[in-house]
């Protein structure tokens, strides 16, 4: 009888048949591991490339920022160079060609443009108005591919309320500093001083005048007159100085005794500018006065075309002039004791105020006015009356003209763009980057 194997033994499979699926799963797991590693490598590589790109971008941005900052500093340096040129040489240097290109810390700058602006908005302290002439410049700085452009507005300021004042004249000098912008210049100084001390004593007068500085020049007295000899009397002196080169100068004056004083002035420039002559009448009320009962004061001057003598000895103290200067010295009581207008001749041609200044304590002050009329339009000659004295008129505030002394000076070849007070300067009003 044959034995039948047990069921569990009959269900068994050969051992070889049970190992094959295990090997296939093992190979599958190995392939997946390799694939996972490859994917990880790819992800890491992509991440690294992204990080490198970001780093490169940051580095490029940092370099660009650094170059832009250097370019801006270079452009600002070019603006400073333009300002230095203007402060030394005046409006004539308002030109891109006057500003040489330069470098700064690896960056370069060059002037793109510079031109005169006639109506630049300014503060009233600049010239007594809200508009002034000036120079508008533009400079570009560059480093590599980066460029920055900066613009600037520089106003030519000549404040009307300016001058020098104090007590002295004998133990200390009366000094006015001059900075001509052009080689040829005529400087006018108007000095007002008390003839007596507040408690009386002797009268004093103006004495020496000299022009000092790096280069030679002249200083001559145009007039020296007195309103009277009383306690409230004032002395008025007009001084004309000349310069022949650009540089630093000073007009220095003295008195026979120390007194309260105040001085104002103006500078006139141009090719061949020169002083023709001056006029002041010591012996009449034509150029001095001791009454101020009217708001309008009238004086007279002799015909400048035919009467008087010019510095060169020719007849006519004002013949051929294109500019008339009026220097005024007066006793006052308050800060607002001023002239409000000056007119000259039968047509009442208006003069323009250049400088006025009160003395310490407001006991007097000095003013300088002028008018320019080109010779081609008749010049100053056309303002004089023929054969009779020529009138001039003053309008005033307060008691300005109770004691006053004044005189006139004539110049020729004045550039009409140049007249300015002695206390003048260049003022930056706008400084911006152009985008």
Question: What report would you give on this structure?
Answer:
With 435 residues, this protein is an alpha+beta fold. It is 19% helix and 42% strand. The chain has 3 helices and 24 strands. It has helices at 7-10, 15-89, 124-127; strands at 102-104, 107-121, 131-143, 146-157, 164-168, 174-178, 185-194, 206-213, 217-226, 234-243, 249-255, 259-269, 274-279, 288-289, 296-301, 323-331, 339-344, 349-350, 352-358, 364-372, 390-396, 404-412, 420-421, 425-434. Strands 5, 7, 9, 10, 12 and 23 form a 6-stranded antiparallel sheet that branches. Strands 13, 14, 16, 19, 20 and 22 form a 6-stranded antiparallel sheet that branches. Strand 17 (339-344) and strand 18 form a beta hairpin. The chain is elongated and about 135 Å long. The model has no long low-confidence stretch (mean pLDDT 84).
Secondary structure layout:
Elements: H1 7-10, H2 15-89, E1 102-104, E2 107-121, H3 124-127, E3 131-143, E4 146-157, E5 164-168, E6 174-178, E7 185-194, E8 206-213, E9 217-226, E10 234-243, E11 249-255, E12 259-269, E13 274-279, E14 288-289, E15 296-301, E16 323-331, E17 339-344, E18 349-350, E19 352-358, E20 364-372, E21 390-396, E22 404-412, E23 420-421, E24 425-434
Antiparallel strand pairs: 1-2, 2-3, 3-4, 4-24, 5-12, 6-11, 7-10, 7-12, 8-11, 9-10, 12-23, 13-22, 14-22, 15-21, 16-20, 16-22, 17-18, 17-21, 19-20
